[in-house]
């Protein structure tokens, strides 16, 4: 289906104003290891591009290697993913784990588990191979960790919005389905691109069940500034403006952010 406990922290942003890339120095992530196992000197400057490869035919935009947008008959409509095999791929030389990790993200649909499951390293590798994206087999576990950690971070940001604006009406929102839209820039991503010259390397739309009401969240994934050989990621998460309620939520958040930024700092100077 978030930041990697192997490779650095995810600076999540809940759709606040300003550049989506965190330019302030930061310490090492609590769950990060001393160094990243990816050799960046042998890859392109963009960590996201080198790690996640490319999800577009024009070979321009890196994206989640698990295809959430495919439309063939074998696609699961809940996550827009093909039913990936657990068998070793032709030409694969190293055996990968077939164990799937459970997320903390509750499902809104009746399945075998109450939470969403992440693909196993073997399924992840098969997803890459299916799209003709080369992947060093020894790094697949790291790639899965990062993929999973970013999604956990995204869900935590969704919960912040839900708790702040709708906590009393719905105690336990759940994820109904998700869709990858790497080629579709959101309006906010376009604004950031024009103003700051940065674009997200991926976009997801998550459909959340708010105790009977479906709401859509847009998540833009940005590659942050690496700290040494530790890559960083920033997420911009916010409810899509699909109705008046979501527009109101966004407006209230902007006002709250403005008060905290300008009025709180002003009061501290007196």
CA-CA gap between termini: 48 Å
| Neighbour order of strands in the largest sheet | 1-9-8-7-6
Mean pLDDT: 75
Low-confidence stretches: 2-11, 24-46, 53-62, 69-73
**Major sheet, described briefly?**
5 strands, mixed
- Tell me the fraction of residues in β-strands, as a range: 15-25%
Question: Number of DSSP strands?
Answer: 9
Report on the architecture of this protein.
There is one protein chain. By secondary structure, this protein is α+β, with helices and mostly antiparallel strands. It is 29% helix and 19% strand. The protein is built from five helices and nine strands. Strands 1-9-8-7-6 form a five-stranded mixed beta sheet. A hairpin with an 8-residue loop joins strand 4 and strand 5. Helix 2 crosses helix 3.
What labels would you give this structure?
270 residues; two-stranded antiparallel ribbon; single chain; globular; 5-stranded mixed beta sheet; disordered N terminus
Strands, helices and their partners?
Layout: E1 10-13, H1 47-52, E2 75-76, E3 81-82, E4 102-106, E5 115-117, H2 121-130, H3 140-166, E6 174-180, H4 187-196, E7 202-210, E8 213-223, E9 233-239, H5 244-268
Parallel strand pairs: 1-9
Antiparallel strand pairs: 2-3, 4-5, 6-7, 7-8, 8-9
Helix pairs in contact: 2-3
Structure at a glance:
The protein is α+β, with helices and mostly antiparallel strands and 270 residues long. It is 29% helix and 19% strand.
């Amino acid at each position: 289906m978030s930041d990697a406990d192997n490779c650095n922290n995810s600076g999540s942003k809940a759709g606040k104003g300003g550049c989506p890339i965190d330019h302030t120095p930061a310490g090492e992530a609590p769950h990060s290891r001393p160094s990243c196992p990816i050799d960046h000197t042998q890859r392109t400057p963009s960590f996201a591009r080198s790690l996640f490869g490319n999800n577009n035919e024009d070979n321009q935009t890196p994206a989640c290697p698990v295809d959430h947008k495919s439309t063939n008959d074998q696609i699961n409509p809940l996550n827009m993913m093909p039913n990936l095999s657990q068998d070793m791929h032709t030409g694969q030389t190293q055996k990968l784990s077939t164990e799937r990790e459970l997320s903390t993200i509750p499902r809104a649909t009746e399945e075998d588990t109450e939470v969403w499951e992440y693909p196993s390293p073997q399924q992840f590798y098969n997803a890459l191979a299916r799209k003709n994206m080369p992947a060093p087999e020894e790094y697949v576990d790291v790639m899965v960790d990062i993929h999973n950690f970013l999604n956990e971070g995204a869900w935590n940001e969704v919960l912040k919005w839900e708790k702040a604006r709708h906590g009393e009406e719905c105690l336990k929102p759940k994820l109904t389905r998700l869709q990858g839209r790497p080629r579709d820039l959101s309006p906010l991503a376009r604004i950031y691109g024009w103003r700051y010259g940065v674009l997200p390397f991926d976009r997801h739309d998550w459909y959340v069940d708010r105790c009977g009401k479906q709401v859509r969240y847009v998540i833009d994934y940005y590659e942050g500034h690496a700290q040494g050989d530790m890559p960083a990621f920033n997420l911009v998460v916010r409810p899509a403006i699909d109705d008046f309620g979501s527009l109101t939520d966004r407006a209230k958040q902007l006002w709250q952010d403005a008060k905290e930024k300008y009025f709180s700092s002003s009061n501290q100077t007196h």
